[in-house]
Specification:
The complex is a heterodimer of chains A (about 525) and B (about 375). Chain A has 3 domains: about 1-135, no CATH class; about 165-280, no CATH class; about 295-460, no CATH class. Chain A contains 17 helices and 12 strands. Chain A has helices at about 1-10, 15-30, 60-75, 85-95, 110-120, 165-175, 205-215, 225-235, 250-260, 285-290, 295-325, 330-340, 350-370, 370-390, 395-410, 415-450, 510-515; strands at about 35-40, 50-55, 105, 120-125, 130-135, 180-185, 195-200, 245-250, 265, 275, 455, 460. In chain A, α6 (about 165-175) packs across α9 (about 250-260) and α13 (about 350-370) runs antiparallel to α14. The two termini of chain B are about 25 Å apart. Chain B is built from 14 helices and no strands. By secondary structure, chain B is mainly α. In chain B, α11 (about 265-295) crosses α12. Chain B is globular and about 60 Å long. The longest helix of chain B is centred in the first third of the chain and has 33 residues, at about 80-110. The chains are: A alpha+beta (about 525), B mainly alpha (about 375). The interface between A and B is medium-sized, with 28 and 35 residues. Chain A: Belongs to the GerABKA family. Chain A: This is Spore germination protein, GerA family. Chain A: Keywords: Membrane, Transmembrane, Transmembrane helix.
Chain lengths: ~525, ~375
C-alpha cells in the first residue's frame, strides 16, 4: 500500500542517485537481465558518481561500450568534467563526451522505466534530477524479404518486417516529402506496443486522420500481438463478415494508398500494415495493375471480378441449375451430369457441401503443415479424393470440377478469402430451397449488406454505389495511368489532382529524329 | 426524424425508373397491343405524355411541401381528422398495390420458373428480403438500386441488340389503320403504371434538393417511356401479328435468340436479373407503406413497422386470390378503378385545395 502510494507520487527523479535507483528498481524489480553499471572517478567520495542502466537482453552492448561507457570512464578518470552542479555536468556529458547518435533528457520515472524496458540505456547522475537516454538497441530482425502473400512479377519485391524502424524506413524511402506525417502511439497495457499512424498532411482528409487516432486511442487491452488486433478493435462493422480495413505487407502499396489520401497504421512486431478506408473493389486491384501497361490488366480485372462472383455464387448456381432448372444447361451436358450422378447416394446439396468441406480441410492442412508434409497432403487430395471418391461413387465428377473451380477462383482474390465460405454456404442453401430465386435473393441480401457498410466514412462499395461514373476508371478496368489524374473522390475531396492534365505521352516531333540523322 | 438519409436527384430518378420499369417491361406490350395493334408505339407516346402530366401534379405538390410527405401535408391541408383519413387511405393503397405486385411477381415466377414451390414460400422469401432491405433505410435502398438498375438496363440492351436481325419494319404498317380510337383505348389500361410516380409523394422530403422534384419525375417518365417505346417497337417488328398472343415479349425475345452453342435457354438468366429489378420495386413500395404507417402512428423508428407491414402485405397477397386467374381477373376489373383515382385523383384534389387555400410554400 505504502509502496504503491510512493510510486504514484514519485513521478519524476529526485536529486539523490541512490533514491532514484531504488525507485526504478521498485518498479522493475531486479530482473536478471537488468544491468547497473556504476562509474566513479578515482578521487573517492568527492568526485561525481554515475550509474548506467540497461537491459543486457535488449541493448547492443558492443556499441554501448564504444559510444557510452568508454568515453565516460575516460572522462571520469581524466577528471575532464566541468559543471557547477549535476544538471550542467549531465548536459556537458551529453553534448561533448558521449558519442552515441541519440541522446535525450528525461525526468519522468515512468517514462524512464518504459524506455529502459524498450531497450534504451539510461544514464543517471548523482546530484541531478535528469537522466540521459541513449538509444542503442540490439536488433534481431528478419531481412527485408518478398511478402509471401502478395507476390508480383513486375514491381518492387520488398516487404515490411516485424521491426517498426525498418518498416518506417522502407516507407520513408518511397515518400521523402516532409508532408509524410508519422504519429507514434503506444498501445497495450502490458505490451506497450509502438504504433505509427501515417498519412500525408497535404492530401489526407483531416477528419479521417482524427477519426483513426480517436479510435486508436480508445483501445484498452493488455497486449497487441499483431496489427490484426488493432484492426478488430477499430473496424466499422464488427459484426459483418466483410473486412472494412485494408492490409498489406508491401511498402509500395502503402505509399500508393497514402498518396490516394488514405491513412496507414504500422504496428511494431507485425509486418502487416493496415490501411483505411477500405473499399470492396480493392480486392480485385493489385499493385501490378498499375506497374504494367493498362490493356492486359484491364482485362485481368474483369477476369478477377468474374472469378470473384463465381467463387461466391457458383455452388449455388450449380445446385440451382441441376436441381431446379436443368433446361438451362445444354442438353448433352445435362445427360452427362445426370449419368455421373447416377450412382451417388446423396442429394446434390449434400454432395456439394460434403466435397466443399473436404476441399476446405485440404486447403487448411496444406497451409498449416510443414512444406514437405504439405506436398503429401496435396497428393492425397488430388489423387485419392479427386479420383478415388468419384470411382467409389461418393461424389460425381461434375461436383469435383465445380468445387475445384471454386477453390481456384477463391485464390484469385485472397483479400476476401474470409467471406467466401460463409457466403457460399448461404447461397448454397438458398439455392437448394428456392433455386435461382434463392440465389438472386441471397445476392440481393449480400448487396444490401455491403451497401449499408462504411469504412471510415467511405461507403464500402464506392464508386459503384453510390454510383460515380468518373471513378469507375479504376474499378472494372484500369485506365491508362495518365488518365488516372485525380485522386478517388470517395476518399479525399480536397487536393484531388495527382498529376497535371497533359500527361499523355506525345510522340516526338519529326525534327527530333531528323536532327539525329544530320 | 424517421428517416435520416438523403438521396441525390440521380438516385431518385433511378428509384422511379426501377419502380415503373420491371412491370411495364413484362406486361405493358401485351396490354397495349391487344387494343392498338401495330400502333401500340403511339399508345406508349400517349401514356408517356399522360405520365408526365400526372408527374407534374406530384412535382407541384412536392414543391409546395418540400419538407413533408403526403401523410404529413394532408394533415396541414385538411386538418387532423380528414388528413389522417387521407393518409390512411394512402398507406392502405401502398400496401394494396404492393400486395398485387408481390402476388403477380410470385405467380410469374412460379409458372415460369419454380413450379414445384408453394406460392406462400416464394412470396415470404421475396417479401422478407425486401423487409431486410427496407430496414436499412432509404439511403441503402437507393444504393442497392444504383447497382441493380444498370444491370437491368444492360440486360435489356443486350436482348435488344441480339434481336436486331429479326426486325421487319413492314410489321409497323399500316399506321393508324383504324383511326385514333384504338390507340387511346390501348393507352388506358397501361396508364396506371405510369402514375406510379406517386411514390415521390413519400420521397420528396428526402431529396437532397426537393425543389428538383418535378424535373426528376419528368426525366424518369421520359426515360421509362423511351425504353418502353423501344421495347414495344422491337416486339411489334419482331413478332408482327403474333404479339397479341405473347404474354411476356421480353422473355419471348430472349427465347428467340437461342444461344445454341452456349446455353440452350437463357430466359432463367433474364428472369434472374428481372427478379432483382422486381424485388427493388417491391422494396420501394414496402418502404413507402412502412414510412406512411410509421408517420401515421407517429412512431420514432420504422424498423419493426417494416416487419409488420411486410407480414400484412404477404397476407393480403396470398389470402384473397385462389389462383393466378382470379388475380388476373381482379387486376383487370377492380384494380384500375381503385388505384387510378387514388394515385392521380387525390393528388390533383390536394393540389387544387393547396392552390385555393394558399397553403404551403409558393415561389
Amino acid at each position: 500500500m505504502k509502496k504503491s502510494q510512493a510510486l504514484k507520487n514519485s513521478f519524476s527523479l529526485v536529486l539523490n542517485l541512490k533514491e532514484n535507483l531504488a525507485m526504478i528498481l521498485a518498479i522493475t524489480g531486479t530482473p536478471p537481465d537488468l544491468n547497473i553499471r556504476t562509474i566513479k572517478s578515482n578521487l573517492g567520495l568527492k568526485g561525481p558518481e554515475a550509474a548506467l542502466l540497461f537491459m543486457t537482453s535488449l541493448v547492443d552492448t558492443e556499441q554501448l561500450g564504444v559510444f557510452v561507457i568508454n568515453p565516460l570512464v575516460k572522462a571520469f578518470q581524466e577528471r575532464n568534467l566541468s559543471g557547477n552542479n549535476g544538471e550542467e555536468l549531465l548536459k556537458n556529458l551529453g553534448h561533448s563526451i558521449i558519442t552515441s547518435p541519440t541522446v535525450k533528457e528525461e525526468k519522468s520515472i515512468n517514462n524512464i522505466v518504459k524506455m529502459l524496458l524498450q531497450g534504451d540505456s539510461i544514464l543517471l547522475l548523482d546530484n541531478c534530477d535528469t537522466a540521459l537516454v541513449m538509444e542503442l538497441r540490439a536488433v534481431e530482425a528478419r531481412n527485408v524479404e518478398e511478402p509471401t502473400l502478395e507476390t508480383v512479377i513486375r514491381g518492387p519485391k520488398e516487404g515490411f518486417t516485424e521491426r517498426l524502424q525498418t518498416s518506417v524506413a522502407l516507407l520513408r524511402r518511397k515518400i521523402t516529402h516532409p508532408g509524410l506525417c508519422l504519429e507514434e502511439m503506444s498501445i497495450g497495457r502490458f505490451s506497450q506496443t509502438r504504433v505509427m499512424v501515417v498519412y500525408i498532411k497535404e492530401i489526407a482528409d483531416r477528419g479521417l486522420v482524427d477519426e483513426v487516432k480517436k479510435r486508436m486511442s480508445r483501445i484498452d487491452i493488455d497486449g497487441i500481438m499483431d496489427s490484426g488486433y488493432i484492426e478488430q478493435l477499430i473496424e466499422d462493422a464488427p459484426y459483418s463478415i466483410f473486412p472494412t480495413i485494408g492490409n498489406t505487407e508491401k511498402p509500395d502499396v502503402v505509399a500508393a494508398r497514402l498518396l490516394e489520401g488514405r491513412v496507414a497504421v504500422l504496428v511494431d512486431g507485425s509486418p502487416v500494415a493496415l490501411t483505411m478506408p477500405r473499399t470492396f473493389f480493392e480486392a480485385i486491384q493489385t499493385p501490378e495493375d498499375y506497374y504494367s501497361r493498362s490493356y492486359n490488366y484491364s482485362l485481368v480485372r474483369i477476369i478477377r471480378l468474374i472469378f470473384l462472383i463465381s467463387s461466391l455464387a457458383l455452388p449455388g448456381l450449380y445446385v440451382a441449375a441441376v436441381n431446379h432448372h436443368p433446361e438451362m444447361i445444354p442438353r448433352t451436358l445435362v445427360i452427362t451430369i445426370s449419368a455421373a450422378r447416377e450412382g451417388v447416394p446423396f442429394p446434390l446439396l449434400l454432395e456439394v457441401l460434403l466435397f466443399g468441406l473436404i476441399f476446405e480441410g485440404l486447403r487448411e492442412a496444406g497451409v498449416r503443415l510443414p512444406r514437405p508434409v504439405g506436398q503429401a497432403v496435396t497428393i492425397v487430395g488430388a489423387l485419392i479424393i479427386g479420383t478415388a471418391a468419384v470411382d467409389a461413387g461418393l461424389v460425381s465428377s461434375s461436383t469435383v470440377i465445380v468445387t475445384a473451380f471454386i477453390g481456384i477462383a477463391g485464390f484469385i482474390t485472397p483479400g476476401l478469402y474470409e467471406i467466401f465460405i460463409i457466403t457460399r454456404l448461404l447461397l448454397l442453401f438458398l439455392a437448394g430451397f428456392l433455386g435461382f430465386l434463392g440465389v438472386t435473393l441471397g445476392l440481393l441480401i449480400l448487396f444490401t449488406h455491403m451497401c449499408s457498410l462504411r469504412s471510415f466514412g467511405t461507403p464500402y462499395i464506392s464508386p459503384v454505389s453510390p454510383l460515380n461514373v468518373k471513378e469507375l476508371k479504376d474499378v472494372y478496368i484500369r485506365a491508362p495511368l495518365w488518365m488516372l489524374n485525380t485522386r478517388p473522390q470517395f476518399i479525399t475531396t480536397d487536393n484531388r489532382m495527382r498529376m497535371s492534365k497533359d500527361q499523355i505521352p506525345l510522340p516526338p516531333d519529326r525534327d527530333f529524329k531528323d536532327k539525329d540523322n544530320k | 426524424m424517421l428517416e435520416g438519409g438523403k438521396i441525390s436527384g440521380r438516385q431518385a430518378v433511378y428509384l422511379i425508373v426501377v419502380t415503373i420499369f420491371p412491370t411495364t417491361i413484362l406486361f405493358l406490350p401485351y396490354l397495349v397491343y391487344a387494343e392498338a395493334r401495330q400502333d401500340a408505339w403511339l399508345s406508349i407516346l400517349l401514356i408517356t405524355v399522360f405520365g408526365v402530366m400526372i408527374g407534374d401534379i406530384i412535382g407541384r405538390l412536392g414543391r409546395r411541401f418540400p419538407e413533408q410527405t403526403i401523410i404529413e401535408f394532408s394533415r396541414t391541408l385538411l386538418g387532423p381528422v380528414t388528413g389522417f383519413l387521407v393518409g390512411l387511405l394512402f398507406a392502405a393503397t401502398f400496401i394494396y398495390i404492393n400486395s398485387i405486385i408481390v402476388r403477380q411477381f410470385g405467380e410469374l415466377l412460379i409458372t415460369n420458373f419454380i413450379p414445384e414451390t408453394p406460392v406462400a414460400v416464394t412470396l415470404c422469401a421475396i417479401v422478407l428480403t425486401t423487409v431486410y432491405i427496407v430496414r436499412h433505410g432509404l439511403e441503402v435502398l437507393s444504393r442497392v438500386n444504383d447497382m441493380i438498375l444498370p444491370l437491368l438496363f444492360i440486360m435489356i440492351f443486350i436482348i435488344l441488340g441480339l434481336v436486331v436481325p429479326f426486325i421487319k419494319t413492314e410489321n409497323l404498317m399500316p399506321v393508324l389503320e383504324n383511326g385514333i380510337v384504338p390507340v387511346i383505348r390501348g393507352a388506358v389500361p397501361a396508364g396506371v403504371f405510369f402514375t406510379e410516380t406517386f411514390i415521390m409523394l413519400m420521397l420528396v422530403p428526402y431529396l437532397s434538393k426537393p425543389a428538383e422534384a418535378r424535373r426528376i419525375i419528368t426525366r424518369s417518365i421520359v426515360t421509362v417511356g423511351f425504353m418502353q417505346l423501344i421495347m414495344v417497337l422491337a416486339a411489334i417488328t419482331c413478332f408482327g401479328a403474333q404479339t397479341a398472343y405473347i404474354l411476356f415479349p421480353a422473355l419471348e425475345m430472349a427465347r428467340t435468340i437461342r444461344l445454341e452453342f452456349f446455353l440452350t435457354n437463357v430466359d432463367p438468366v433474364i428472369l434472374l436479373v428481372w427478379i432483382l429489378g422486381g424485388t427493388m420495386k417491391i422494396s420501394i413500395f414496402l418502404y413507402c407503406s412502412t414510412l406512411a404507417i410509421a408517420q401515421l402512428l407517429r412512431l420514432r423508428e420504422y424498423g419493426w413497422a417494416a416487419v409488420v407491414t411486410g407480414i400484412i402485405t404477404i397476407i393480403i397477397a396470398i389470402v384473397p386470390y385462389e389462383d393466378s386467374f382470379s388475380l388476373a381477373d381482379h387486376i383487370r376489373n377492380v384494380g384500375p378503378l381503385l388505384i387510378l383515382p387514388i394515385q392521380a385523383g387525390i393528388p390533383l384534389l390536394l393540389l387544387v385545395i393547396a392552390v385555393i387555400t394558399g397553403k404551403g410554400t409558393q415561389k
